[in-house]
């Protein structure tokens, strides 16, 4: 009796499977051995089929690491943010310079250094960097001084060295901005080495922890209301001919198709902050290339407040503040 019941159940399952519509065949190329497959596992090397992105418009399938933003069949957007190619330091770029700045500020809010650094043109910048433009702008070049540029590299022999050197430079700029915010810019701790008292080292450590404690980190997590202004609203000196000529020389160094100054304001725990960056377009993609713009020099902003500068101290920005200085 039990055997008959088992056989009946198996027969029912078989008939149900036969009555169902056949599963749609998924063709895919194995990323390991390049074999064309239609099964869940590669029939040559056994690699599992990668997870796919399904177009919500037509069902077309794309690998997770595709850099496509839109479906090639129906044009439906596949995802909000594209992904970088494997092995790249830089992200895939953005449709607008404002999107690049917004992504950077989201990384600052979350203290996510990888996200902040992903908005920069690393490989693209190294490929297009114009050493001659540096000479025309500054009249000299010293790799030990201009650490953000790296070694002269006509054949890209120092490509990896220069990429990581520039990445380290930008990391340092972000670090200094966060440090200035955490300890208050005019605090002596920003300029001096802190010597822990030998008689009470634990107390000294506790004081350091208090200085860098969660209070201000939590404030960073409140970063919101990012908006953008024309540089001319910050100062009319931005449009002076001499400043325009200086920007053209600076932008030529990046070897980009187009460069622009992106001025943003954002709010954080009852205060409004100013951030001005340089964005560059290579082809149809925008990246950040500098966290400090010529505009910062014009208004006399300190180099250590590149990313987190209180806007209340900039007279021309007071009409645009969400919060008045407390």
Query: Which class do the helix and strand fractions yield?
Result: alpha+beta
Name the helix and strand elements from N-terminus to C-terminus, one letter apiece: HEEEEHHHHHHHEHHEEEHE
Percent of residues in beta strands: 5-15%
Strand runs, count: 9
Which quaternary structure do these chains form?
A: single chain
Q: Which descriptor suits the 3D outline?
A: globular
What's the alpha carbon Rg, rounded to whole Å? 27 Å
Enumerate the spans where pLDDT stays under 50 for 5 or more consecutive residues. 5-23
Note the main sheet: 5 strands, antiparallel
Quick rundown:
The chain is built from 11 helices and 9 strands. The chain is α+β, with helices and mostly antiparallel strands and 326 residues long. Helix 5 packs antiparallel against helix 10.
Structure in words:
- The protein is α+β, with helices and mostly antiparallel strands.
- The protein has two domains: 54 residues, no CATH class; 224 residues, no CATH class.
- Helix content is 36%, strand content 14%.
- It is built from eleven helices and nine strands.
- Strands 5, 6, 7, 8 and 9 form a five-stranded antiparallel beta sheet that branches. Strands 1-2 form a two-stranded antiparallel sheet. Strands 3-4 form a two-stranded antiparallel sheet.
- Helix 5 runs antiparallel to helix 10.
- The longest helix is centred in the middle third of the chain and has 25 residues.
- The protein is globular.
């Amino acid at each position: 009796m039990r055997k008959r019941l088992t056989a009946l159940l198996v027969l029912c399952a078989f008939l149900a499977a036969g009555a169902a519509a056949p599963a749609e065949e998924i063709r895919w190329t194995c990323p390991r051995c390049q074999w064309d497959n239609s099964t869940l596992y590669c029939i040559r090397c056994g690699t599992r089929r990668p997870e796919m992105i399904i177009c919500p418009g037509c069902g077309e399938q794309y690998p997770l690491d595709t850099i496509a933003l839109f479906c090639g069949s129906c044009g439906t957007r596949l995802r909000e943010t594209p992904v970088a190619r494997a092995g790249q330091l830089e992200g895939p770029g953005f449709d607008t310079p404002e999107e690049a700045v917004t992504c950077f500020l989201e990384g600052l809010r979350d203290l996510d250094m990888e996200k902040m650094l992903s908005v920069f043109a690393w490989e693209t910048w190294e490929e297009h960097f114009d050493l001659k433009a540096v000479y025309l702008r500054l009249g000299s070049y010293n790799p030990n001084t201009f650490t953000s540029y790296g070694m002269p590299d006509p054949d890209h022999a120092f490509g990896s060295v220069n990429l990581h050197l520039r990445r380290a430079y930008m990391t340092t700029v972000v670090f200094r901005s966060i440090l200035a915010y955490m300890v208050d810019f005019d605090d002596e701790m920003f300029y001096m080495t802190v010597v822990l008292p030998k008689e009470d080292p634990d107390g000294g450590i506790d004081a350091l922890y208090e200085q860098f404690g969660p209070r201000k980190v939590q404030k960073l997590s409140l970063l919101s209301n990012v908006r953008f202004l024309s540089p001319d609203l910050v100062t009319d000196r931005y449009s002076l001919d001499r400043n325009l000529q200086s920007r053209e020389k600076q932008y030529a160094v990046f070897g980009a198709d187009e460069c622009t100054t992106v001025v943003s304001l954002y709010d954080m725990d009852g205060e409004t902050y100013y951030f001005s960056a340089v964005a560059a377009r290579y082809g149809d993609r925008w990246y950040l290339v500098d966290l400090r713009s010529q505009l910062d020099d014009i208004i006399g902003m300190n180099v250590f407040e590149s990313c987190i500068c209180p806007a209340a101290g900039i007279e021309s920005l007071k009409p645009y503040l969400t919060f008045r200085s407390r």
